[in-house]
Please model this.
Amino acid sequence: MIRALAALQDRGFRWFFLARAITLITGSMSSIALAFAVLEIDNEPQSLSLVLAAFTVSNIVFLLIGGVVADRLPRALIIQSCYVIDILSIGTMAALMFTGTATVPLLALLSVANGASTAFVLPAMQGIIPQLTTAEHLQQANAMLSFVRSATTIGGPVIAGILVSTAGPAWAMVVQAIGWAAAIPILALVRLPPPDHAGGTTFFHDLRVGWGEFWSRTWLWVIVLAFMVMNAIHIGAWGVVGPYVAKNDERLGIAGWGWVVSAEGVGILLMTLVLLWFPLRKPLRYGMLGMALFALPLTMLGVHPVVVVLAIAAFLAGAGAEVFSTGWNLAMMENVPVDRLSRVSSYDMLGSYVVMPIGTLLYGWLITHADVQTVLVTSGVLYASIAIVTLLVPSVWRMGRPTGALTAR
Model:
């Protein structure tokens, strides 16, 4: 147990962990709440895809800026400032839903604000973790954060499904805003060393340096290219088609969809427990094999969308996704200099997210013009194939861990 929780020995990580846990707990209902808020206004998949695309496009536009800023300024301060924007945007969504004045364009506009703030938060969070713990405890720190994230996704979607179907999606948005408000003062207790950024360089110089770090690592850009397509499939098939099937197929239903998403969280949760104790010696090899498992729930959603079968498939996919998530974070944090990590992460996120708006819009169009089962089964096969092909790249297959990282106590 001491080894598993070793990262909590550091005071800065303890406060960051607490703040992150609160936002994960309260925000775990947000995706379901937003999806069904849109469908409550307009029961058309194109409307949902429009709102999701608005968030993603905004996120993509601001990601590179967010990466440079996160390497220049105190990362905890950036996260706090963005949480204020999030409170305002999600709070306005809730107010519009309560008053019955919400429209799809308004929700899309507020999603733009939320996507922009996330573009600053994500690179800052990626860069802050190595500053809060030691190399020996890095896997435990990432696994602990994943543990909380997965634990909240187990109960969050179930509660969201019940809450949305009874009281409405606005209440889930209120809970999320409260969580962000609570996290802001806790993050003020995180003490970080001054940013390592050397003064006198321009914004575009910093971008070029970040690009050089990104492009010089074959394993990095190969996997980013793979996720460029895989994420588009994920957000389209799972994020758009999934709620649509749940709302319109009585075999699944809104509450059933909540159980399926929670089962995925259970898989993630159990795998984080494994990763707290056992070192991940080949992070990218096992990670991409784990990602291929997401083809199972995608296929079952099209072939046989019943709660029990789909939940089992989602459980396996969740376990595989956690292997990749922890492995990818370790690969980035152990191989990229910390003073450039946020910029490199922003290029990673930009490449991984850039096609997602197309995915949301494409799948919104596909399920109104093609057979849903054919769309989902084809998506599952393509998803697994891309994940497996990345293993042909030697640096992906062979990457190991630094010796010191495998001797944590």
